[in-house]
Write a structure and sequence with these properties.
By secondary structure, the protein is an alpha/beta fold. The protein contains 10 helices and 10 strands. The strands form 2 sheets. The protein has an 8-stranded parallel β-sheet, with helices on one face. β1 and β2 form a beta hairpin. α7 crosses α8. The mean pLDDT is about 95. Bound molecules: NADP nicotinamide-adenine-dinucleotide phosphate.
């Protein structure tokens, strides 16, 4: 097992985030404490949850019992769609913080733009207030397309530190990432393993065999070499550890090119333009 520490990415407001963190989507609250506990013991320091996952309390219990100092942790949660709007955002944030048992989070995200509601500008302004009040160290968005980002940049004061989007070898998001780079917005990949859908792909399996690694490790390594922040999820202790053991090898340019060729526009989750 590699003991190489996870590198940090410096966000546009100077706050740093580990480039590899742990996601808990679809983990029931009562199982979340054990999974996050294993992740923290293994060396993860960044945890990604959301109000709608229903497991912020489980995350909070694991954080509290881990003994890891608060300042070494990076905790992200997300505002659910029904709570968009100024007052609702402030109330939803309070509820999340209470469930997590924290005094502040490191990153607060708008979970989806839900463009038909047309409330993400007001929502983001409320988050700017939470930032100013020191209740979150950074604010950002999730599932924003270039048009949503452009509107946000035109009408609000603070550039989001990152945009968390579906991103994996089957959906490489080149145009969106170019927009991020132009505006100093970091890219964070959700479903970085495409929920397991690409782990049997022949090209990925071949690369894995040549490096003596698993297909999941190859996919995570591809993300890291692309400069993306990743938050793989697993409830399986061996996989939780395996997914962190990706800093002791490197893909070659030929490997990177072979993975680049797998982009097919394949979404495993909803389309942000139509989810409302
Ligand atoms: N912002 C958003 O809208 C959004 C949407 C989706 C996800 N997310 C975030 O992104 C995180 C990750 O995405 P995700 O949970 O959808 O999918 P993912 O991380 O791409 O894949 C998770 C799946 O892969 C399996 N897996 C994990 N490591 C493996 C390994 N080494 N070998 C083989 N299989 C492995 C897991 O199985 P086991 O658990 O059974 O081991 C699970 O079925 C989420 O947990 C959440 O924090 C955000």
């Amino acid at each position: 097992m590699s003991t190489t520490p996870v590198p940090n990415v410096t966000l546009n407001n100077g706050v740093t985030i580990p480039q590899l963190g742990f996601g808990v989507f679809q983990v029931p609250d009562e199982e979340t404490t054990a999974a996050v506990g294993t992740a923290l013991e293994s060396g993860y320091r960044s945890i990604d949850t959301a109000a709608v996952y229903g497991n912020e309390a489980g995350v909070g219990r694991a954080l509290a019992s881990s003994g890891v100092p608060r300042e070494e942790l990076f905790v992200t949660t997300k505002l659910w769609n029904d709570d968009q709007g100024c007052d609702a955002t402030l109330a939803a944030f309070d509820a999340s913080l209470e469930k997590l048992g924290l005094e502040y989070v490191d990153l607060y995200l708008i979970h989806w733009p839900t463009p038909a509601r047309d409330r993400y500008l007001d929502t983001y302004r409320a988050m700017e207030k939470l930032l100013a009040d020191g209740r979150t160290r950074a604010i950002g968005v999730s599932n924003f397309q270039p048009a949503h980002l452009r509107r946000l940049l035109d009408h609000t004061g603070i550039v989001p530190v990152l945009n968390q989007v579906e991103l994996h070898p089957g959906l490489q998001q080149r145009e969106l990432r170019a927009f991020h780079a132009e505006h100093g917005i970091a890219t964070e990949a959700w479903s970085p393993l495409a929920q397991g859908a690409l782990l049997k792909d022949e090209a990925i399996a071949g690369i894995a065999e040549r490096h003596g690694k698993t297909p999941a490790q190859v996919v995570l390594r591809w993300h890291l070499q692309e400069g993306t922040i990743v938050i793989p999820k697993s409830v399986t202790p061996e996989r939780i550890r395996q997914n962190l053991d990706v800093f002791g090898f490197a893909l070659t340019q030929a490997d990177m090119d072979a993975v680049a060729a797998l982009d097919s526009g394949m979404r495993t989750g909803p389309d942000p333009d139509t989810l409302n």
